[in-house]
Every structure is written in structure tokens, then in C-alpha cells.
Amino acid sequence: MRELLIKLDLPYKDESLYLTALTHASYANEHQVEKNEKLEFLGDSVIGLLMSDYLYRKDLADEGTMTKHRAQAVCEEALVKYAEKIELKDYLRLGRGEHVKGANDAMIADAFEALFGAVYLDLGFKAAKKLFNQVIVPNLKLVWGIKDYKSTLQEYIQAGDKRAISYHITKESGPSHDKEFEAAVKLDNIIILGVGRGKTKKEAEQNAAHDALKKGNYDHQATL
């Protein structure tokens, strides 16, 4: 783990934060230590703010373009691409079963977000921004082509009567270290357009949007 911190040129103070950031729930359950979910939650917001700030300063044409680029740049697939550049997968702490199977994309993306949460808590926002510029910005060209179903669905809906869509986690199943989520995307918080499942809430929401796009419900529902 220290090898990673040295590689990233992070003058860390609290090493335990970074250990936690790299700790999957399966390892935490086996060793009775803290898992990385809280740091992931914080890191998600830190990365989101840094990306919004970056896109704003790039002075893109309109809010819609910025929203689309932000969604592409912070989705699970994009986070995995950034994580690959720093070989984050090699430093994850996984339980015995997960170690045998190997870390999946959801685990890697969660740990990447948690790393930013740890940096923010340990070293502050400026250090998080430095890491963002070091690891994410040089690799944005790799993610602009990512298909973001949530943004695509939003564009279709807003092309009609400017009606609102929302995402709801409708079911959780499985042990804490290996959960599966089910999400529904609704029009005006009432009409279900699509349903999706995934190993993370984000993945489930993306699959729900994909389901709605495949069904083509948005064209009919948006004009109701």
C-alpha cells in the first residue's frame, strides 16, 4: 500500500485511511476491520465536484454538454480506466473468496472513489485536486466515447415535454460483501420506464436506463 502512496506522490499523514480505502467488505468481514464504503461515498462527491469544476473551467458550450461529459467521466467504466493507470487492483484487500475470483469492476471503481475520499480527509481538497489532475485529467480522452445510458435517456425525455425522470433502488439482495441491487427508472416519479440490476447502485441505474431505451418506452410515455 505504501508503494502506491509513494507512486502517487502523496505525503500521507494517516496511513489507516488509505488502508480502509482499499478494503473491500469481504476482507473487512473476515478481519473485523472497517470497509471502504463510507470513504467511497465521500470520494464520489469529491470526484464529482472536481469534474464539474474542470468542465466549467473548460468553458464548454452549455449545461447539457457538461452534464453529458461529467456522466461519462465519472461512471464506473471510466473510474476503472483511471484505476488501471495506477494499477489500483493490485493493492485491494479482498476476502479469501473474492481474492480467488479477483476484483471485479465495481470493487475497483469503489476503491478508486474511496482513495479520493481518503486523500480529501487526510490532506485536504488541494491534494485531491492534484491527484485528480495527475490521474484523471490526462486520461479523459479514454472515456469520452463511453456510452452513458442515463444521459441518453435524459436527453430523449427532455426533448419532449421536459418531464422528469428519477431512479429508485427497489431491492437489495445478497451478503454485505456481495450485494446485488435492483433499480427502477420512473417518469414523473410514477411510470416505470425500465428496470435494471447490478453489483452497485450506479450499475443498476445504468441498466435500468438501458432497459428503458431498449423498450422504447420513453417515446410514448414522454408525450402522455
Count of all domains: 2
Helical stretch tally: 12
Calculate Rg over CA atoms. Answer: 18 Å
What is the percent of helical residues? 55-70%
Task: Offer a few descriptive terms.
mainly alpha, 224 residues, 2 domains, Double Stranded RNA Binding Domain, 58% helix, Ribonuclease iii, N-terminal Endonuclease Domain, Chain A
Describe the structure.
With 224 residues, the protein is mainly alpha-helical. The protein has 2 domains: 2-142, Ribonuclease III domain (Ribonuclease iii, N-terminal Endonuclease Domain, Chain A), CATH 1.10.1520.10; 149-221, Double Stranded RNA Binding Domain. It is 58% helix and 11% strand. β2 and β3 form a beta hairpin. α6 (76-85) packs across α8 and α8 (105-123) packs antiparallel against α9. The termini are far apart.
